[in-house]
Write a structure and sequence with these properties.
alpha/beta; 10 helices
């Protein structure tokens, strides 16, 4: 039987990646055989520049916005909800559950807002609750997939709150009103990567996100009394230190320092110059290891870095091993196939981080209706000026 690919039904996903003022994006298609293809890629994506025709497409596409850890923070909190004494003999209704969860969300938001604002380096009043979701339900100590229609005295669950900056919210709030709520999904990029790794790696899972800003981040996803929690640590360290060191010592521009650094990684320099640059970069590498020492990390650490790291980086001192994010393992384990890999705008070892937000949305696509209620009741807490 001849397969005509252009006749196959395809779903389209607009994946937007937010890095503060700059955002990029790509249009991903998925056919019935789970082939993934890049339809279009934008180095810079702006809401203001979208045409009317493009906006009409958005009503059919799934929109996934993924924010860098410097601009979004997810907090996981185990919760316990006690029903009113007069209600315990009646099955738990959707209205009662929605009210209980909405009240708890508002209460927890006021508690975690200050901590999140410090993580994001912004004023508390500019910290917005942009999404919340609940999972891992227990009714009177017993696990259930959905707590509705159970008679119970006590409800336990894991509530996750995702907070972002006011500027990010203002930039992307137009998406919140397009189509149905289920067509829009907001997440933190590191959270997506951890959840993708969890699908084929045993917990705990460690992720080190290194970027060129002032701060980098270290995350651990591990089991908790209720569900799983993500521990987040901010590290005062930047990949730009490597290029700054070369610029300063050789008196060259950023472009030249970048070329020299790449030649250093590829061993394309003379042995003498390679040794010299290695000595210059060692203090910056030692500082990174020192930051991780305080976290008492062990095992594998998956690396998501905006810049390739020198092979001389060793974490043996803290009994840890660095590993690249495994794109092939991810797609093979979940049954996806990357179509036209040569046309994808990133090398294979970087595709993982760009696919992770799609993977998170894909497996949350049949989310509990409870979470849709929560988002409707959210009212973007903290968004009023």
């Amino acid at each position: 039987m001849i397969k005509l690919n252009f006749w196959q039904k395809k779903e389209k996903f607009l994946i937007l990646e937010v890095f503060g003022e700059k955002s990029s994006g790509f249009l991903l298609s998925l056919d019935e055989e789970k082939n993934l293809k890049i339809e279009k890629h934008w180095l810079e994506f702006s809401w203001k520049n979208l045409s009317r025709r493009f906006l009409r497409h958005l009503e059919k596409w799934k929109v996934v916005v993924s924010a860098d850890p410097n601009f979004a923070s997810t907090v996981s909190v185990p919760i316990k909800l006690e029903r009113e004494a007069g209600m315990t003999r009646s099955p738990l209704s959707s209205i009662e559950l929605e009210n209980l969860l909405a009240q708890m969300s508002a209460k927890l938001f006021t508690q975690v807002r200050g901590e999140a604002s410090q993580e994001l380096g912004i004023d508390e009043l500019d910290t917005i609750l942009i999404d919340n979701r609940v999972s891992n339900f227990k009714i009177d100590g017993h696990h259930v997939l959905n707590p509705l229609d159970f008679k119970a005295k006590r409800l336990e669950a894991l509530l996750e709150l995702t907070l972002t900056t006011r500027s990010i919210f203002e930039d992307w709030k137009n998406f919140f009103n397009i189509g149905q709520v289920k067509n829009f999904f907001f997440t933190e990029s590191a959270r997506s990567e951890l959840l993708a790794l969890k699908r084929f790696k045993s917990l705990p899972v460690n992720l080190l996100v290194l970027n060129s800003g002032e701060f980098s981040h270290f995350f651990t996803l591990e089991k908790a009394a209720v569900g799983e929690v993500i521990h987040r640590h901010r590290i005062k360290w930047s990949t730009s230190r490597f290029l700054e060191i070369i610029e300063k010592n050789f008196g060259v521009s950023r472009k030249v320092s970048s070329n020299l650094y790449n030649l250093f990684l590829e061993k394309g320099l003379s042995p003498r110059l390679e040794r010299h640059i290695g000595v210059l970069l060692k203090p910056a590498l030692d500082q990174l290891v020192k930051n991780l020492e305080h976290l008492k990390v062990k095992g594998h650490i998956y690396i998501d870095s905006s810049l390739n790291l020198p092979s001389s980086l060793s974490l043996r001192k803290i009994k840890a091993v660095t590993k690249k994010l495994p794109t092939d393992e991810l797609t093979e384990h979940l049954g996806f196939k990357i179509e036209g890999e040569a046309n994808w705008p990133w090398p294979k070892d970087q595709i993982f981080k760009h696919l992770a937000p799609f993977i998170e949305f894909y497996y949350n696509n049949e989310d509990l209706s409870i979470n849709h209620w929560l988002r409707r009741r959210l009212h973007w807490l903290g968004s009023s000026k």
